[in-house]
Amino acid sequence: MSEALDKAEAAVREAEGSTDVARIVAAVLATQQAMQQRPQAPAQQCQHDHRKPRRNAGEWIAIAAAVCVGGIGITFASIALAILGGVTGIVVLVLRGVWNDMQKGR
Questions:
Q1: Around Cβ 103, how many Cβ atoms within 10 Å?
Q2: Is residue 30 a contact partner of residue 3, using CB atoms and an 8 Å limit?
Q3: CA–CA gap between residue 106 and residue 84 (Å, rounded)
Q4: 23 Cβ neighbours under 8 A, 6+ residues apart
Q5: Which residue, 21, 40, 17, is CA-closest to 29?
Q6: Do 38 and 5 meet the contact criterion of CB atoms below 8 Å apart?
Q7: How far is Cα 27 from Cα 8, in angstroms, rounded to an integer?
Q8: Structurally, how many domains does the chain consist of?
Q9: CA–CA separation, 25 and 27 (whole Å)
Q10: Is 19 contained in some domain?
């Protein structure tokens, strides 16, 4: 590699003193060849693993249990809302009856 650079430098020095186009072209070509002969640095590779981690059976069982518990929680919340709606309806009907009775008593 250093031989090619030495040749390129010598060709450049020779071309500087002369206006001969052929010598200038030779110097440029020698420089290009010297640059092509340089070893390229290897591309840096990442050090981590790109594979997606897989879940094991225990994690899937835990996920299924969490979904079941969440479903049961939603079920109980829906039942509670239904009971609350029924109690609210009964209270409204009773209060309306009391209001009507008060209006008739005037």
A1: 8
A2: no
A3: 33
A4: 11, 14, 15
A5: 21
A6: no
A7: 6
A8: 1
A9: 5
A10: yes
Domain extent, residue 13, equals: 2-36
Question: What pLDDT does residue 9 have?
Answer: 73
Q: Where are the alpha helices (DSSP H) in the chain?
A: 2-17, 21-36, 57-104
Contact 18, 41 (CB under 8 A): no
- Rounded-to-integer distance, Cα 6 and Cα 14, Å: 12
Q: What is the mean pLDDT of each run of 10 residues along the chain (106 residues)?
A: 70 66 72 70 71 86 96 97 97 96 82
- Sorted by sequence, the CB contacts under 8 Å of residue 1 that are 6+ apart come out as 34, 37, 38, 39
Residues 6+ apart with CB under 8 A from 87: none
Does residue 50 belong to any structural domain of this protein? no
> How far apart are the C-alpha atoms of 8 and 14, rounded to whole Å?
10
DSSP secondary structure letter of residue 45:
P
